[in-house]
Amino acid sequence: MFVKYKIRSKNLFFLFVGLIFGLYLGKEFRQVCQKILLEERIINRLDNSNKLPKTLFVGVMTAKKYLKTRAVAAQKTWIKTIPGKVLFFSSQSSVSTPEVPVVGLEGVDDSYPPQRKSLLMLKYMHDHFLNDYEWFMRADDDIYIRGDKLGIFLNSINSSRPQYIGQAGQGKKEEVGLLYLNEDENFCMGGPGMVFSRATLRAIAPYLEKCLDNLITTHEDVEVGRCVRQFAKIPCTWSFEMQRLFLHNHDEPQGSFTSTLAGSLVHSITLHPVKSPPFLYRLHSFFLASHSNELRHRVLMKRRLLSNYGEPSLTKFRKRDVQESLSWNFIQRHSYTRNNNNPNIGIYDSYKEYLVKTIGNFLDYLNLKSRQRGKRVEFKQIIYGYTSINPKEGANLILDLLIMYKKQKNRRNIPARKHTYLRTPFSDVQCRVLDKNNATINIIVPLLDRHDKLKIFLEKMNEECFKFKEPKVRLLFVLYAGVSLNNNKRLITEYQSKLTGHEILFEQKVAEFSRGSALQYGASLFKNSSLLLFLDIDILISRSTLQRVIQGTVQGKQVYYPIVFSEFLFKKNDELNDSNGLWRQFGFGIASMYKSDFLAVKGFDTRIVGWGKEDVDLYEKFVRTNLSVLRAVDPGMIHMYHDKHCDRSMWNFDMCMSTKYSMFASITGLAEMVLNNTILRRTKHNDNFDVDMRYFQGAR
C-alpha cells in the first residue's frame, strides 16, 4: 500500500513538472510566433509604403544653352526642397551630366514657342511615372519653387479627382478674341507653373498628339489649357488667391526680383521669372533667412511664455545718466541722424530690406484672420517714422504707415494710416569653439613700381608680424617690370636676409599688368591645402588681423572678405572714425581662402586687365556656391590714401572719379576748410568765391 502511494506521488510530481515546463514552452513559443508575425507585418507595411505613390514629379522645360547656368542654379537651390523627383526636358541633342539629369525629347529642338516640347514632356511623364506620383508639374527653367510649401499645399487637395492648378489667365487685353477663348474659359499661365493631378494626366495623355496636331495659337500654355479643358473637362483654378501663390512678377520689367525682396513673398509657392541665376541664389537665401527668423520668433514666444517675460515695451530701458540716452533717427524719404556727418542721407538698401521684412511680419500678424474678416491688409509706404537701437533689447521702430484694406467681397481698396510700435529683438549669442590652427598664411601681393609704398608696407609687416613667431607668414610679391623694379628687388632681398621663421619671396611676371592674373599666378605656386590672403601694397595689417584670417577662413566651408578702413587725403589723426576715413564696404579686393576653394570656383577671370572688376567677379562666384562668405569690419586693416588715376577710356571711369573725389576728406573736414577759408577764399577784387586748387594738387 505504501509502495503504491509512493509511485502515485512520483507520477503526480512529474505531471506537475511537465505541466509547468509545457506552460513555459508554450509562452515562449507564443512570443516567438508573435514576434515573427509582427516582423512580417512591418515588412509588409514597408513594402506597401514603398508601392504608394510619392507626392510630386516636376518636369522643367529648358534649352541646351541653359543647362550649365539656370539648370545648375535650380539644382543647387529649390530642387533640394521638392518632395519627389525633378527632371529637365530639353532638345534631342541634350545629354545628362552628373549635376543635371536631362531627358532629350525625340524630335524636339529648342525653337520657340516650345509647344511640342511641352506636350511631349507631359506624354513622357504619363508613360514613365504615372503610377509613381500623385501630382505632376510643368515648369520653366526661370522659376523658383518652394517645394516644402508646395507639398503641404498639394497634400490638402484630393489628388484622385481631376485637378488643373495654377494662376488662371485669359490673355492680355490686346489678345482678347485672338486666343479663341470664351468668356468662361481660361488656362493656367505657364510662367508660374501648372500642376496636374494623376487623374488629369491620365485623361489627356491619349490625346496629346491630337492636341499637338491641332494647335490654334502660338502660346504653349494656352494650348495645354485648351487640351485639358477639352479632354479632362476642367478649367484652371479660378481662385483669386492663386495670383499670390503662383506669383508672376509684373512689377519689374525684366523680372528676376532684382529690387528689395518684400516680406509678402513668403506666402508664394512659385515665383517667376528669375532670368539670372545669381538672383535665384538670392531668392533661396531670402527664404532660408525667413524660415530661420520664423523659428527664432517661435523660440522667443515660448521663452516669453515660460518666463512670464511680459509684453515688450519701448520705454522699458531706464538710463542711469545722460550718456546712456538712446538716440532716435527720423526717417521719411531720407534718414535724419546725428550719427552721420551728413544729417540728411538716403536710406541704405540693406536697411530698406530690414524695414520691408519687419513691416511684412507685422502685416502677416494682422492678416492671420483675414479670411474670417473678409479683408486683407497690404503695405503701401512709410509716411514717417523713428528708429533706435537698444543695446540690451533690440531695434525699436515707431512708424506711421500708409496701408490698404482689400475687401474680398466687392474687391474695394480702402487706404488708411496706421501708427505702429514695433521691436525686432536680438537673437541669442552664438559661441563657436575655435581649434588651435597653426596654418601658415600665404600672402600674395601684386606690385608695379610704388617703391615708397613698399617701404611702408614692409616696415609695418616687420613691426606687426615678422617680430613674432606665430602666426607664420609666407609673403610673395608678384613683380611687374617698371621704373622701380630693381629697387623693389633690392629692398625685398634686404628683408629676406633678416628673417627667421618667416619667408619673403618674389616672382617676376613678364606681361601687361593685371591684378587678377598676378594673384592667379601667385596662387598656382602653393599647395591646394594652403591658406591664401590676397592683399594690395597700400594695405597695412596688424597681427590681430592675421589671427582673424585664420579663424574666419575654414577650408571647404567659409571664405573671409574683410571690410577695410580707407583713409582720407586730409585727416586729423590716426583714429578710425568718420573724420579720418570710411569703411570700404564696396571693396572686395582683399580676401582670404584656401587654395582648394579658390580652385573650386575656377579662380580669377584672367581676361580682365588692369585694376578692378576681377575681385567682384570672384566674390560673385563664391556667393553662388555652398561656401559661407564672412563679410565683417576688420579694424586691423588700413588702406593708405594714394593718388588715383582715372582714364576716360576706362570702362569704370565714372566709378573711378566718384571714388577719387569721395576720398579727399570727410564732409565735416571739408566744411571746416571752407569756414577757415582754406579752400574757398574771397579775392581782393570782388566778393566772388575762388577755389584754391593747391590743396587738391596732391589728389590729382
UniProtKB/TrEMBL annotation:
SUPFAM superfamilies: Nucleotide-diphospho-sugar transferases. Belongs to the chondroitin N-acetylgalactosaminyltransferase family. GO terms for molecular function: glucuronosyl-N-acetylgalactosaminyl-proteoglycan 4-beta-N-acetylgalactosaminyltransferase activity. InterPro entries: Chond_GalNAc, CS_glycosyltransferase, Nucleotide-diphossugar_trans. GO terms for cellular component: Golgi cisterna membrane. This is Hexosyltransferase. It comes from the Eukaryota. Keywords: Glycoprotein, Golgi apparatus, Membrane, Signal-anchor, Transferase, Transmembrane, Transmembrane helix. It is a single-pass type II membrane protein. Its EC number is 2.4.1.-. The lineage of its organism: Eukaryota, Metazoa, Spiralia, Lophotrochozoa, Annelida. PANTHER family: CHONDROITIN SYNTHASE, HEXOSYLTRANSFERASE. It is found in: Golgi apparatus, Golgi stack membrane.
